[in-house]
Amino acid sequence: MKVVFKDAAIYKNGRMISADFFLSDGMISEPFLRSDFTVDAKKYCIFPGFADVHVHLREPGFSYKETIASGTAAAARGGYTRVCAMPNLNPVPDSREHLQVQLSILARDAKVRVYPYGAITVGEGGAETAPMEEMEKAVAFSDDGRGVQSPERMEAAMARAAALHKIIAAHCEDETLLHGGYIHDGAYAAAHGHRGICAQSEWGPIQRDLALAERTGCAYHVCHVSCGESVELIRRAKARGVDVTCETAPHYLTLCDEDLQEDGRFKMNPPLRSRRDKEALIRGVLDGTIDMIATDHAPHTAEEKSRGLAGSLMGVVGLETAFPVLYTHLVRPGILPLERLIQLLYENPCHRFGLGESSMKPGERADFTVFDLDAAYTVEPEEFLTMGRATPFAGTQVFGRCLLTVCDGRIVWREPAAEAMPTAL
Fold this sequence. Notes:
Helices cover 28% and strands 22% of the residues. The protein is α/β, with parallel strands linked by helices. α3 packs across α5 (200-216), α5 runs parallel beside α6 and α6 packs parallel to α8 (275-287). It is globular. The termini are close together.
């Protein structure tokens, strides 16, 4: 089938251009004269499929929260064609045998490309380094959900990962500094009688790990950065040549503890920090210290998120809201250029984690997403494809609706009301 998007705004080679976009049988094509389906795309933007390096798909082991089928459907609806799946599963992918359990489900049910993490330690228990050399199909190694508490264990893991040319992606959390806390140790916690989590519980392990990465030569990636001190430590480490990248999440860039409500949908780990921290994160995004934005999509059941800030489990969903939230709060006000946002959501994660990159040139399998940036709507969690419903953005108005997502030449999401979009390629 031959499809052409006429006069679209297309992200190509780091900038937005206006051009026709041609597809033939699921491949990006040279121009042709006659098409089977023509889209008047003047008001649409075509981006390469986004990449999220921090997603919890919950399967195997916790399919009552999310399945690979539902999680990857949500990814497609959000414009993502590549996601990296975190290893806090059952069984934990800490060996070839355990990783294969997940790979088998992915082969059967995944709607977009999924790159699984292997665990740093056996069972994510922190005591014994996992046999990383067995897990050649792991995109990187992480104990996400838990910080590796022992510096000796982390150094040994980094040395092994460096020898394998693999990334260590660290959940940085010093458990000795938590003291039962569950939201940021700031003004809201003090005013409402909540136990707080200090920022040092995050930046302390980052400081430790940066020294270890420098010593071992390991490619080191910091997960879900939330505070200004972390950004500054990473900025200085990059300046002295440490092989480090980092991510933050949409909620840390657009919300702070002043926005908290007594509702589990505002509870995640790390927590929403201060306004000063949010501003430091934005500066880090603008100056290149923060390399990418990942959702930390972490679905739980409605009951698990119904116990308020103190009792709910930590984690919110984000795949279906990431782009519109970031576009609405950062791009439309002129804080962040659109091209920089696409670098954060696509180019940088693909390059760092080796996820494959699309040049949007003829001869490639089609891998892209189409957005109407002027479409305004209210975030309604009951409409999500993910099984999770907890989002701090519920009920807020956003701009930017995903109309179509194509992965490997196949349509994996089409907005039902988007009659202008093709139903096949």
